[in-house]
Amino acid sequence: AMDTDLSSQDRKDLDKFIKFFALKTVQVIVQARLGEKICTRSSSSPTGSDWFNLAIKDIPEVTHEAKKALAGQLPAVGRSMCVEISLKTSEGDSMELEIWCLEMNEKCDKEIKVSYTVYNRLSLLLKSLLAITRVTPAYRLSRKQGHEYVILYRIYFGEVQLSGLGEGFQTVRVGTVGTPVGTITLSCAYRINLAFMSTRQFERTPPIMGIIIDHFVDRPYPSSSPMHPCNYRAGEDNGAIYPSVEDSQEVCTTSFSTSPPSQCVFTVTKAHFQTPPPVVTDTLKVPVMGLAFSHQLSSSRLSYQPAALGVGSADMGYPVLFAGGLNAAHPHQLIGPGKEGGVPPIPSQPAHGTQADQERMCTPLDGVHYSAATPSSSEDTETVSNSSEGKCGSPHDLLETIFIRKVGAFVNKPINQVTMANLDIPFAMFAPKNVELEDNDPMVNPPDSPETESPLQGSLHSEGSSGSSTGNTHDDFVMIDFKPAFSKDDILPMDLGTFYREFQNPPQLSSLSIDIGAQSMAEDLDSLPEKLAVHEKNVKEFDAFVETLQ
Amino acid sequence: PCRTRYCTPSSITPTMNCRAEVLEVSVEGRQVEEAMLAVLHTVLLHRSTGKFHYKKEGTYSIGTVGTQDVDCDFIDFAYVRVSSEELDRALRKAVGEFKDALRNSGSDGMGQISLEFYQKKKSRWPFSDECIPWELWTIKVNVVNLANEQERQICREKVGEKLCEKIINIVEVMNRHEYLPKMPTQSEVDNVFDTSLKDVQPYLYKISYQITDSLGTSVTTTMRRLIKDTLAL
């Protein structure tokens, strides 16, 4: 009923615009998360395949996925097209970062000219999308992807699901375009806890690694389409699955008329490559070009360039690939997270309190060795598993975390690459000298010295890893080579150990020695009466003195 | 956020209202250029089309606009600009002059740079053509001096975040779909668009700047019209 006002040609055009707008929207979003700078050329001669007069490449797989999700439908009221951007770490934990929503609401603009104003406004909206995709927090993350994490995308159609973004997510509106059948709106909801993440944090060494809930487990909706990495690998990815060009590629030939403004000549033709289009204009060179162009995309993909494509390759703002460790056999799935050997259970009471609950280690994705992160949950001694279920730390912790490990004082699992010299921690003497041997780790196997509770108490008798003490008191003391905060050699130029040894055996007090004591006692007793007589004589003086003290 | 005022600039005979947007940024000296370019390019991205090719019967076709990512060196920020070296050069020239003027003025480092979109209205001789602005973007700049490297690092990030907000503000304004000049006929195209570039076609624009003196009054020490005063009478 509401589109009886719209001519059938206009309606067809509008549907086509919306369809291609949706496809281009997906391309812009995914390309903005590839991790590479995008560069396309301006062309003064219209090529016809450039919808909305913008040079936006079509990555074939992305188009394929988008079409699959849309399944021939168009965004309508209650049926939105969503592009979900998420992050997946080398251990297989993933987290949603953004949801881009292309929605349609019921507010119609009957007066608007479809093939002119709507088209141009859709073009403007795509430009806004190009700009906005660079200013949400996920952009910077995506530029740094590749080693410890990757960015994935997923397209779905239907109801918008924002629950995976955590609390307090923010939204930004990209724009709206009114049409006779409804108003198209494009917006992005993004996880807020990224907002304070700067790329600096990837170069520092934050020790925290929370567990990211594996949301595939929790996903409420049944039709969860698989995630895809934003950057593509070559290799097994066979171009046969995704035809690089469509059989009948729809091209857009736009001619606009200026006089009078209400009139518009607009042709959209289906071009078959063998058959020249019925309307011969000089703008329709495209089909051939389009084919060649897309073809070039797939072949460059298959050639698997490991090095980063430079900015200069203007046509190929193309994804690059990433370090080894990826499961090459299945390009859309990332690393099958591997567990290396066994992971010892965590002690149930990390000594540092709440902070330590979140302190774990993980090894960055270095291609070969993964150590799974341990869950920070109430099930203390649960051994790690890859798809970590378990309570997710607050998203704030999650991303603060990442990927670069730091050795905490109560490290449970020895790190291959950490040497003693790097350990700047208290109780350094307990850090295993030979990092391979867990048996030497005093936290796992405490040294047996039943008399002493801790090395810093008592008499500083200590065994360490070198064996038990001997009898000689001086030799019992083992030099501890760390620097306690309280010891400074300002007064005495010696360290704590030397100091202690020096003053460990002071001379006895003379009054306490028995012989001398006995002697003086006898003398004292004899002289007592004399002393008493003297004191009695001076009683008055004593009293006066006491008065002065009152 | 952007403050929108509908104003009639006093220097030109008003025949229509020109909407004005003002953005403010505080940056370190070495960030001025990149911050200005980011804002100006973002505006021009939205205000440029492909080249028009007029055909018979008053129809025209439109060329294709390419885009590219630009990373800033002194700010944790990236933006998208139109792929046109001519346009980039023109903006860099203007911004460079603005930056030099800021530095040399001896003021406290406050100034503003304006991007004005206008239409030309032809007048009969001996009157010169009128320039009627329809959109004016003003970026007020406050240059700060930082003491140490740590502050500079924080400034990199903060300015990056601020610029993200500015981009969102600009997009908001663009999305209002307010007045845009009517699409011109072939004879009128040069009154609406800058057709001198070979790959893209921005609306007619001019960039000017003012340096604020230390008293805070907007005394114009240098007021120049850069670029695209395409009038040649």
From TrEMBL, chain A:
Positions with biased composition (Polar residues): 373-389
Keyword Cytoplasm: yes
GO biological process: mitophagy; piecemeal microautophagy of the nucleus; protein localization to phagophore assembly site; regulation of autophagy; regulation of cell population proliferation
One GO CC term on file: cytosol
Pfam family, one: ATG13
Record InterPro entries: ATG13, Atg13_N, HORMA_dom_sf
Low complexity composition-biased segments: 458-471
Keyword Cytoplasm: yes
UniProt domain Autophagy-related protein 13 N-terminal: residue ranges: 96-196
Keywords of this entry: Autophagy, Cytoplasm
Region of interest: Disordered: 333-392, 438-472
Localization: Cytoplasm, Cytosol; Preautophagosomal structure
Family to which this protein belongs: Belongs to the ATG13 family. Metazoan subfamily.
Name of the protein in question: Autophagy-related protein 13
Organism annotation: Himantopus himantopus (Black-winged stilt)
UniProtKB/TrEMBL annotation, chain B:
Keyword vocabulary terms for this entry: Autophagy
Domain of life: Eukaryota
GO CC aspect terms: Atg1/ULK1 kinase complex; phagophore assembly site
GO MF entries: protein kinase binding
InterPro entries: ATG101
Location in the cell: Preautophagosomal structure
GO biological process, one term: autophagosome assembly
Family per record: Belongs to the ATG101 family.
Protein name: Autophagy-related protein 101
Protein source organism: Charadrius vociferus
